[in-house]
Sequence to fold (478 residues):
Amino acid sequence: MLPPGGRVSGARLARLLGSWRRGGARQGSADLAAALKLLVADGRLPVGTRLPSERELTDALPVSRTTITAALDQLRAEGVVESRRGAGSWINGPVGAGGGITGVDDTLIDLSRAAPPALPSVRLAMEVALTQMPEHLASHGYDERGLLVLRQRIADRYTARGLPTSPDQIVVTSGAQHAWALVLRLFVGPGDRVLVEQPSYPNALEAVRASFGIPVPVPMLSDGWDVDGYEAALRQAGPRLAYLIPDFQNPTGLRMSSESREALSAVLRKARTPLVVDETLVELALDGVESPLPMAAFGGDSVVTLGSASKSHWGGLRIGWIRASSEIVHRLLSTRAAIDLGTPVFEQLVLAALLESPEIVLQQRRAEALAQRDVAVAALREHCPQWSFEVPAGGLGVWCTLDGPVSTRIAVVAQNHGLRLVPGPRFAVHGGCEQMLRVPYTQSPEVLREAIGRLGVVAASVAGTGFPADADLSVPVA
Fold:
């Protein structure tokens, strides 16, 4: 059975494509495939749209039949287009559903995830955890709060940062995203509004939608958070909850000042709106400046803090946590059984070992991230001089302002040059950020230089300045 949908004529498709050819004859099929994927990603070729025949396309563009066949073959292989003898071709799925922006291809350099590999200390901590496992094997292994030793060390870390915390205020989860889902389940019902930053972490926005909540964006300023904007949004939207990333905000990399933390906390307390603070990146300060107190030090018991080991240690551990008042912890635990029955014991023991002397491990992570950030900044200035950005004081990515609204096109075309990127609109609630692009610096310096060199080629091609037709874009990834 064929999917429903209208048919686009060859002439109309040619108008939609515009000046799609960028790389000369040798790059024709790749450029055509990238341009068609851009139309799908933009929604101008919806799923189910029937495409013109190859003969009609040959007359309309005009290009050789071989070029069109090769472009369609590529799109079929990626799952974007499907064809059937006697029925023609049609758009089969959105870019990313089969082999588009977020498809899996191990030959690509992945700049879509701001997540570093594990440090050697993780392997050593695993060896320690193995020696501790026997004493836990005699128990049933379920613990909805988390192991006491881990909760104590997480609490100690908060206390060291100026926020006195007890183990009873900590709930260990399977990552910060799981923690966020638990909090949403407790606070948000269908139709409830949740204040979020614009731009913000895409998976956090998706979690709000999955809970049938409505994300309400408050735009970020170029230098931080708009306290007056939040006050207006609280009056107008009447949100049930607010979600912020005050430490090296994802994706902008900004960090909220102590003054803004105090002012924004006061605004939220006045409106009696609970605040969820995502501190996933808080340990990755790279500038050596003294860190402000956690938001919970200003907002008190109305603040729920999410933490994670994914960026500071390793995402494969899948260990996160919630810090909250004893009353909120009790409510969280009463609802958790409907989702899961606890976090794996072994991974908790691994993180507990890592947190026994946390600064030793964190210093190594920060030194690595600092070196990679400097490589990425230098490479962006060399290969993408037309873009602007602020050098982030921490975190794992550079938020670039492009020379035009071409973020989605860059992300699509980049796949033909061995790069996987997340376009700017993914970080927005209702679209936008088309002139923005996040460039993570979590790869090795050698891979970063290669990746950003390719990115410069892509940026030049999208901008129409062209690039050599015989450019070697198949350099093996280190």
Remarks:
- Residues 96-105, 465-478 have pLDDT under 50 and may be disordered.
